[in-house]
């Protein structure tokens, strides 16, 4: 019933270079410095790594890490954290360069979605779905879920109201979205990007590309974000219809819901009913629970997802975040904010408060807050440092990522020139041998073994 699915998460990171000697360094310069060693190794700022992931610097200055394909939410969380470690290592190298050049500055990388100038960058989720004629219906049925899930998985944000006052909001991303469904990412920034690029056998599959999410710092928030979406998708793919939750104005609702820090103010549905984001989430969770009620082999992480989904709704119902205060980013941040402001008697718009909240997103274990908070029991973890460290070089073992990662690793070890993307593996020599891996579920492939053998030739 809950079929195996492929997922991957792309994270764009915010970058700044804080200098203390009056010199300035733009985000572009900092990003180029960050990628110096990547380019030196592979002659490109767009590389696939031996853990199967993609690391690149697109136009603009946001370094991006796209995890390899996973078929288990726990693995995905581990791979996503591995991306942070890889980028943190690059940050340390960049800082060592600066120090060697006598520049009094520090590069910071942030896992968030807004820079100080208000530019937005994303965290995209990818879900493999079977190709079917009613893809658009399914995507539309998911819109109310994506508009409302920010009350559980939003990163938390201090925004400015129209009157210029600071106020707590659920999401950094909600104000930046312009469309429910569209095939253009940059122009209209839709919730679901419907561009048809499956990175797989196009006759069988589509890749659902979700753009609306906030980047998550808490591992449990990533888990819930992807895990709940996966379960709901499974239910829709099995034929359960969700038609009665369509929103009257999704893009208006997404903003109103983000701005209502209680999660309980109603928004209007297409049928005229008025329900809150919490109501919608509770309704969807009830349907999913009903759908999986006869399921005997839910994975441990699926059970954790359902449990956290339920406790998140409970926290909103009771207006008491205690039960999720180490697991959901917005609640973790609200607690952090509360403690700090009580101690120092500061307003929400005090620059020290802004710096504190930003430090929650700083991926550095030394400069950022997350590592210490986890050590003090203020931030939940579901991975171990060992698992994450291993995932920086070892691909997921049960998907196509294994083929790619092993191929990249073998080529790196033998200093062979190759070209790789999500589907293709190619040796750049006179023969130009290429293998196409169109099945993202396949972790074993004789053709790839032959190709790896050809690396030794
Ligand atoms: N068939 C698939 N189904 C679901 N996810 C996939 C599939 N193939 C690859 N992925 C995941 O999709 C993500 C693709 O990342 P990438 O940044 O290359 O995205 P893109 O949308 O193709 O390109 P871009 O970001 O450059 O517009 C990765 O996280 C990868 O693991
Ligand atoms: Mg991308």
Explain this structure to me?
The protein has 457 residues and is α+β, with helices and mostly antiparallel strands. The chain has two domains: 7-391, Creatine Kinase, Chain A, domain 2 (2-Layer Sandwich), CATH 3.30.590; 400-456, no CATH class. It has 15 helices and 17 strands. It has an eight-stranded mixed beta sheet. A three-stranded antiparallel beta sheet has the order 15-16-17, covered by helices on one side. A hairpin with a 5-residue loop joins strand 4 and strand 5 (63-66). Helix 3 (73-100) runs antiparallel to helix 6, helix 8 (277-292) runs antiparallel to helix 9 (300-318) and helix 10 (329-344) runs antiparallel to helix 11 (351-361). The longest helix has 28 residues, at 73-100. The model has no long low-confidence stretch (mean pLDDT 94). Adenosine-5'-triphosphate binds at residues 6, 8-10, 54, 66-69, 126-128, 197-200, 205, 207, 209, 422, 440.
Helix and strand topology:
Elements: E1 7-12, E2 14-19, H1 27-34, H2 36-42, E3 46-48, E4 54-57, E5 63-66, H3 73-100, E6 105-110, E7 123-130, H4 135-148, H5 150-153, E8 157-160, E9 166-169, E10 179-182, E11 190-193, E12 205-210, H6 219-237, H7 250-259, E13 267-268, E14 274-275, H8 277-292, H9 300-318, H10 329-344, H11 351-361, H12 370-375, H13 385-391, H14 400-414, E15 418-420, E16 424-427, E17 434-436, H15 446-456
Bound molecules: adenosine-5'-triphosphate and magnesium ion.
């Amino acid at each position: 019933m809950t079929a195996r699915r492929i997922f991957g998460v792309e994270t764009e990171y915010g970058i700044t270079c804080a200098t203390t000697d009056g010199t300035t360094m733009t985000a572009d310069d900092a990003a180029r410095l960050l990628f110096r060693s990547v380019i030196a190794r592979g002659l490109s700022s767009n590389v696939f790594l031996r853990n199967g992931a993609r690391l690149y610097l697109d136009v603009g200055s946001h370094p991006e890490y796209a995890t390899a394909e996973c078929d288990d939410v726990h693995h995905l969380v581990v791979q996503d954290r591995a991306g942070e470690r890889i980028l943190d290592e690059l940050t340390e190298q960049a800082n060592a360069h600066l120090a060697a050049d006598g520049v009094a500055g520090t590069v910071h990388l942030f896992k968030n979605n807004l820079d100080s100038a208000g530019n937005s960058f994303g965290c995209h989720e990818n879900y493999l779905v079977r190709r079917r004629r009613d893809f658009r219906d399914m995507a539309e049925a998911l819109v109310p879920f994506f508009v409302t899930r920010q009350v559980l998985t939003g990163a938390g944000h201090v925004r400015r109201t129209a009157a210029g006052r600071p106020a707590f909001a659920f999401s950094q991303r909600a104000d930046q979205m312009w469309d429910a469904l569209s095939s253009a990412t940059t122009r209209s920034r839709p919730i679901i990007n419907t561009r048809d690029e499956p990175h797989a056998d196009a006759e069988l599959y589509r890749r659902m590309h979700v753009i609306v999410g906030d980047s998550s710092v808490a591992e449990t928030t990533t888990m819930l974000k992807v895990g709940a979406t996966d379960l709901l998708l499974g239910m829709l793919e099995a034929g359960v219809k969700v038609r009665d939750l369509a929103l009257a104005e999704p893009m208006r609702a997404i903003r109103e819901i983000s701005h209502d820090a209680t999660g309980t103010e109603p928004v209007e549905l297409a049928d005229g009913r008025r329900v809150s984001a919490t109501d919608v989430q509770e309704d969807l969770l009830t349907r999913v629970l009903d759908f999986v009620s006869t399921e005997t082999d839910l994975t441990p992480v699926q059970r954790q997802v359902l449990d956290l989904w339920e406790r998140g709704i409970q926290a909103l119902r009771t207006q008491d975040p205690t039960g999720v205060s180490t697991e959901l980013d917005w609640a973790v941040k609200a607690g952090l904010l509360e403690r700090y402001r009580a101690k120092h008697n500061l307003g929400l718009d005090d620059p020290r408060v802004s710096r504190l909240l930003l430090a929650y997103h700083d991926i550095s274990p030394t400069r950022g807050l997350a590592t210490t908070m986890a050590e003090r029991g203020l931030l939940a973890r579901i991975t171990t440092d060992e698992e994450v460290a291993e995932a920086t070089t070892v691909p997921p073992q049960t998907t196509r990522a294994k083929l790619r990662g092993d191929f990249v690793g073998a080529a790196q070890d033998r200093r062979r020139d190759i070209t790789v993307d999500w589907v293709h593996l190619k040796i750049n020599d006179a023969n130009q041998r290429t293998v196409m891996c169109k099945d993202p579920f396949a972790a074993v492939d004789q053709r790839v073994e032959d190709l790896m053998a050809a690396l030794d030739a």
